Amino acid sequence: MSTLRNLVVVGGIAALAAGYSGYQYLQSDAYAYGQMLKQAESARDTGDLVGALTIYKEVYSASESHRADAGAAIRTMLSIGTLGDLSAPELAETLDILSDFDVMPLGNPDPIYSLVRQRITAADVSVNDVADNIAVHKLVHALEDLDPEGDDLSDMHQQVVEAIYASDPTNLDAAVDMAVAPFESGDAEAVKAILEPIRSTLVDSEGARMLGQIYLSEGRTSDAYPLLSNYTKVRLAIFKEAETKIITLQDEIWEREIEALSRGEGPQSFYDEYNSLSPEEQQVFVDNYVVQKLENDAWYNAALEEYRSTAAIVPVALDFGVLQLRNAESMTDEAARNAELNAAEETFLSIQNVAGDSDDYKLYLGQVYFWLGRQDEGQALFDDLLRANQRSPMALLSVGGTLRTLGKVQLAEELCEEAYNSSDDNALKSDAAYLLSLLSTTTEDRVLWLERSDTTLPYVQISLKEAQGHLAAQKGQTQEAITLYRGAIDLSDALPASPSTYNNTALIHFGLHNLTGEKSDYAQGADLMSKAVELSPDDGIVLSNAATALITKSLYDTIESRVDFKTLRQTPTIHTFGYFYENEDEKSVLRDKLAANPDLQKAIDYYERAILLSP
After folding, report:
1. For the chain, N or C: smaller number of CB within 10 Å?
2. pTM for the full model?
């Protein structure tokens, strides 16, 4: 009885196991891909060549067990006779799918390429309607992707693009192709003429990249941002997917080959040579063996080519990361600024494997970390940059100048002095001297470093005259100081308009005012400060300088009639405001007049923004 019961139990268990095994198969990838093959066959039988090819491609790419069947079906389906019967749009879509294969399933694709090339060259774009020309355009693009070493189709490509664009300037693909040549030749105006009318449709196309980079070069960051954001985010996702794919595939092949060698499945010649080597040589020998296997693996090479192709986004992503940093610096809302800084960090980290060793990467990501309050991480990147460049004068100046903008004045000064003392290049020494003049804490040092700068440059000449004027004023040489200040102003007036020109010239006017006592000298400086803010509304230094100037100007307007400031050689200040009224009624009148002054209101706004923009 017990034996029978045991047999029944065992039989039941076996039946359950068999049932469970069947259930497992139904849930397996092998079963799923087998069903997909049937779906592809059904689509093919109903004449849906594109649909069938799309399914076959997924099976061919993902299922090793069904790859041979999928590849054979694709080769049978894509016969010359079948392709010859397709319309131009269908043929273009078919080629587009083929171009997306990691490893081409066709034994010899040349007959297909010849067929497509004949179809393209036979087209008469001058009489075709727009739809036919669009199909030819797609065929040209697809064939250029599939057969880049084939016959040159550039003339035909240009003809069909011009024909489409002439009929429909809003056609995205044609407009983008029309913009390529002027973009590469540096004709920004021609590119803008083509792409700006369809700016809202550029989305993440190459047109978005080209127009975005042009705007960025022109300082139009708010216009550049959405274009480069769309383009970069989409392509970074594709790049990261390709990166993950190549890393995973490399690990899988490496593990597979090592396991095969461990099981004794390698060639006998491998083991003979391996056993003759020292332990250190054996490791190198194994590594070289597996690397050769990687280099000869078609799927690995396809994944590597895809990774290299998608890595074209890296320099654009670097530009966009810098744009995100600058955008964050301009934000007055702390939460929004931190969110943008975190997004910039994410952008930089996403390209770390490719760009992480570059100087620009370290310099800009380091700034992101400083702004986020993670100064140790930022400084570590700067230090690494200096080590990698063996503390070259150029690297020292780059980091020193950056640290100056971040408020790290002492360290910036140390690096710039090291650059000046270690450089044999006159131009670099001049650059270092000028930076040191900006970092100087005494007028004597400022004059010294400016005299060591390149005094043929207009901005150096202006700075030097200003500093010499300030030094003369300190020594009581008033007339000489006035002459030097006016000379600096005359030189400044000849410079192109810019925030820095306005800001610096305004400061010279203020220095002149301190000597002349003329309200007009101060008013001209304050007006220039306002112009500087108009051109650079997100610069904390410009905002702070302008706020200070406007407060003084508003006080001049409020209490000028009560005091002869010219005779006193002084300017009104908030601290002396209490001397300009005799009773509470006069105080109230002056306070209300001052509060209503538009320059004071503007100054308060500037101060608040400047504080928020400080790192």
Report:
1. N
2. 0.76
